[in-house]
Amino acid sequence: MSSPRIVIVGAGGVGGPFGSALARGGHDVTFIARGAHLKAIREDGLRIEGARGDFHLHPAQATDDPASIGPVDYVLFAPKLWDVEATGAFIKPLVEPETAVIPIQNGIDAGERLAPILGGGHVMGGVAAISALIESPGRIRQMGAFQHFIFGELDGSLSPRAERLKALCDASDLDATLSTDIVEALWAKFVFIVGTATLSAATRQWLSVTFADPNLRSVLHTVMAEATAVGQACGVPLPNDFANQRLAFAEGQGGGWIASMAADLLRGNRLELPWLTGKVVALGRKKGVPTPVTSALYAILKPYTNGTPEGSPTG
Q: Is the pTM for the entire model greater than 0.90?
């Protein structure tokens, strides 16, 4: 059997560390990147730095042209949420009948958005637990030591391709779980990230500030509780104390980190807000579930959705 070919679409704070871990295991990994980041990876490899230690993947295979790679076995799909459809169409040259595409970005709907473009049979579910960002071209800084990959077939089956991917992860420096209930795992991540992303963006502070302040901690818990109620209304079997569990999990990661949405806001970049905080609000309206606190925070952050507004007093 030939060595599986793996492509990482988006060599940022999720795709960079995950792809580097797989490459460290000796697997055939190619990154799709662009601009100065692509240039730096091609010339000097990819550097992962932070709480888990430093690693320099050099040389690293990288390109901005999927057609130059051809069909592959696995695609870890990690562009920003506003780029799902355009990037899905862009990577069609990577997809053959047996190719598995695993979205690993934030949110809960990338799979259903990709299915009409690539074919539902190609799409699996994936969850990335990590906090990292591009520090500079070719360098990614990881905040906190947590790094975990959960994936599985959307129908809950244990397919050969899923089991093979688990074996690839086990042979690498990538802690991974093959799930038979990936939809629930997606919602577990969603409740967590909606809460932490919304509060760290709203406060412009490390999560430690939210955890330490009783008022902010209460708001975080309420956002997680509202997201949990929305998930339950969507048919996901989340327990009634799920917000408590997710808050305890968040605090257990330490507070010296911010969500990627907060990092984007601080840099004046576009936000994934409509697919995170806004998604809870939209689904709440659709399902008749009140989300007053999440709705208020969504409204407060909404002016920054497409980057810092021109002429803003915040710079």
A: yes
Residue 119 gets the label, from left (phi > 0), alpha (psi -120 to 50) or beta, of: left
Burial of 114-149, coded b for 16+ CB within 10 Å and e otherwise, reads bbebbeeebbbbbbbbbbbbbeeebbbbbbbebbeb
Residues 31 and 141 in one domain: yes
Number of compact structural domains in the chain = 2
Q: Could you tell me if 156 and 290 lie in one domain?
A: no
62 within 8 A of 39, measured Cβ to Cβ = no
Does residue 1 surpass a pLDDT of 90?
A: no
Same-domain status, 72 and 206: no
Instruction: Give the pLDDT confidence of 50-76 residue by residue, as tens digits.
Output: 988 899 999 999 999 999 999 999 999
290 within domain boundaries: yes
